[in-house]
Amino acid sequence: MRLTGGRARAAASQYDVLLAVSGLWFVVQFLRYLLPPLFPTFRVVFGVGPTATGALFSALMVGYAAVQFPAGTVADRVGGPSVLAAAGVAFGGAAVLAAAAPTFAVLFVAAVLVGVTTGPHKTVAVPLLSRRYPDRPATALGVMDTIGQAGGAVAPLVVAASLSLALGWRAAFVVGAGVALVTTVAFVRCVGSDGELSLRSTIETTTDEQSLDSEARGRDTEDTDAPTGWAGYRAPFADRRLVGFLLVTMLFSFAWNAVSAFLPLYLVDAKGVPPAMAGLLYGGFFAVSVTQAAAGPVGDRVGPFRTLVVLLGVAVVATAVLVTTTDTVVLVVVVVVAGLGFHGFRPVRDAHLMTLVPSSGDAGVLGIVRTLMLGAGALSPVAVGYVASIASYDLAFGGVVAVLAAAVGLALLTR
């Protein structure tokens, strides 16, 4: 029994890092997606329009995108866990600033800081978890994304509770700051007690580990004379498959940020859905992110590329129906189905990316990919807000459908 108990504890301890990293991702998503359900409140409190609220979310995403490559290079040098811990402290502080913002200008600065401080997480976490769980990377990433997206699902519920209980919108950011502190402390304690990691653990592996990792990913072991420094980060982009899939991720990011930022307002203004119901549907859109835990194992079993193409197709069809229907029941169904496609796509996207980037310095390369991907995504909220202001939300979301369809076509062409 002691042996069995010991084995059980050892097996459970293997997932401590996954759960700790996922807990931080939960807070990242919670803070990022506090903003969209507060757009109607900001319009009243600060007297701003849809272009300004779209610019607020775009500013957050620009800050988020800008730190991807720097965070990756720092993680390659000083250790991913150190970067994650420092970021946890920093985004807790950014949430405090947002809670105290007296003007829209200060809130704008706080949004940028939330973006900058939450930005390092996934660039560091994806290679770290892929190395830690090399036999099931898509599964590990699916678990992280599922737990993280629960933060996105909880965010509008916390906003609704804060407003209905007359606590005010600022209380939602105070909650975020408190949870950030708790999860960061838990992560540091987990890393401190882990047998394989320390706060200064780098993401690079030994030569033997690189060989095994390369074999598992279906790639050749890197040449010992491979370029280093900036040249080493630039060299992988000579691969047509990586560049092509980078463009796919950029198109997806544009569409994802448009939908995630404006879905509540779109449902209210274009479809006539009551605000309370729109908030519930927005929460449901994130609640179905639990399917990411299933998408990961499917990606490990049948291949991440095949899985991501199917899920991207689901997102295209559901978003197209969202634009064309006015039936309430159909709206409920397509919001859920769109959530399945959008959320399920991301863990298998990341797993596929890790088959295209080299093992050495992968956090830096992934940082470049995510900088471009998120930079494209940062443009979409302000673009959608502008089109909605001068034309209609239906036209803006129709453009999103076209972007998603282009992503599917490009993925098939550049496989």
From TrEMBL:
Cellular localization per UniProt: Endomembrane system
PANTHER family in UniProt: BYPASS OF STOP CODON PROTEIN 6
Record-annotated membrane-spanning stretches: 17-35, 42-64, 84-117, 138-163, 169-191, 242-267, 279-298, 305-323, 329-345, 365-389, 395-413
Similarity comment: family membership: Belongs to the major facilitator superfamily.
Bilayer topology: Multi-pass membrane protein
UniProt region (Disordered), positions on chain: 202-225
Residues of the Major facilitator superfamily (MFS) profile domain: 17-415
Key words of the record: Membrane, Transmembrane, Transmembrane helix, Transport
Name of the protein described by the UniProt record: MFS transporter
Domain of life, per lineage: Archaea
Gene Ontology MF annotations: transmembrane transporter activity
Cellular component GO terms, alphabetical: endomembrane system; membrane
InterPro entries: MFS, MFS_dom, MFS_trans_sf, MFS_Transporter
